[in-house]
Design goal:
Layout (H helix, E strand, L loop, with lengths): L3 E15 L5 E15 L3 E5 L6 H9 L6 E9 L2 E2 L2 H7 L4 E4 L12 H6 L7 H11 L16 H12 L6 E5 L7 H16 L3 E6 L2 H7 L2 E6 L2 E7 L13 H9 L15
Parallel strand pairs: 3-8, 3-9, 6-7, 7-8
Antiparallel strand pairs: 1-2, 1-4, 4-5, 9-10
Length: 267
């Protein structure tokens, strides 16, 4: 029996901008999105920078800027998810792995940041196990964020989000700059969490990582969904994909035909 964890229904996001002469313009970077993620499934969101992927994540987490206007509905386990509810659930049932390492506290050692919210009885042991799993040394925990490389910081961000009781993970570009062994561990961790019943939204530019662990892939373009297909459809010449854009995107990858098209310069 299917159990829907997250449902995004007709979601649009707009912002008011002002020009040099203070003329008011409204931009609409996200338009009428409809997304569902079931318990135990991974949905990968793939698209160019500026296509609306991170805005979707921020809308779900209730962290859009104040000048954003949002229409449509977001439901978590069948109940509407508003700012108050997501604030109550964040870090307990809903985990957010942000794209920006600026979410880390610059004045706190990274080991302490991973230990936040964990039981006093096992927080040190659990943090050290996570560090080992993601290729971080025990001594790295004594450092502050500015003393770590970008790839190391992403691994720390990932570790801060892995908690017992989490039922939904929103991972916004969690892997750029991460070395191959740590990348393998992080992807495997997401798949294992899904297999244990967690719903996962993975936002990424890395299509091959996405199709390796995701159940479904949604392709974004200019704030709209082009196509959602099972990961198994991304193979051969993409003949099982439904839209021409998705087929050309697949063929444009270096591992495939490497077609040079301006639309896919972000690959």
């Amino acid at each position: 029996m299917k159990k829907e964890i997250l449902k995004v229904e007709n979601l649009s996001i707009s912002f008011v901008q002002y020009g040099k002469k203070l003329e008011e313009n409204t931009v609409n970077p996200v338009k009428s999105l409809n997304i569902e993620i079931e318990k135990g499934k991974i949905l990968a969101i793939v698209g160019a920078s500026g296509s609306g992927k991170s805005l979707l994540a921020h809308a779900i987490m209730g962290i859009l800027p104040r000048n954003a206007t949002v229409t449509g509905n977001i439901f978590y386990k069948g109940e509407k998810l508003d700012r108050k509810r997501v604030k109550d659930l964040r870090g307990r049932e809903i985990a957010f792995i942000p794209q920006s390492v600026n979410y880390l506290d610059p004045s706190m050692k990274v080991k302490k940041q991973v230990q936040i919210g964990l039981s006093e009885n096992y927080k040190v042991k659990y943090q050290e196990e996570l560090f080992e799993k993601y290729g971080l040394k025990k001594s790295d925990g004594e450092l502050y964020p500015h003393q770590l490389s970008g790839g190391m910081l992403r691994r720390v961000l990932f570790a801060t989000s892995i908690r017992e009781g989490v039922e939904l993970i929103i991972a916004d570009e969690p892997t750029p700059g991460v070395h191959p062994e740590a990348l393998e561990s992080m992807l495997n961790e997401l798949r294992e969490l899904a297999d244990s019943g967690v719903a996962v939204m993975l936002i990424t530019h890395d299509i091959f990582s996405a199709i390796r662990i995701a159940d479904y892939v949604t392709i974004f373009k200019d704030g709209e969904i082009v196509e959602t297909s099972p990961s198994e459809s991304f193979k051969n010449d993409g003949e099982e994909l439904k839209t021409e854009y998705a087929k050309e995107l697949w063929k444009a990858l270096p591992q495939n035909r490497f077609i040079e098209l301006e639309d896919f310069s972000w690959l």
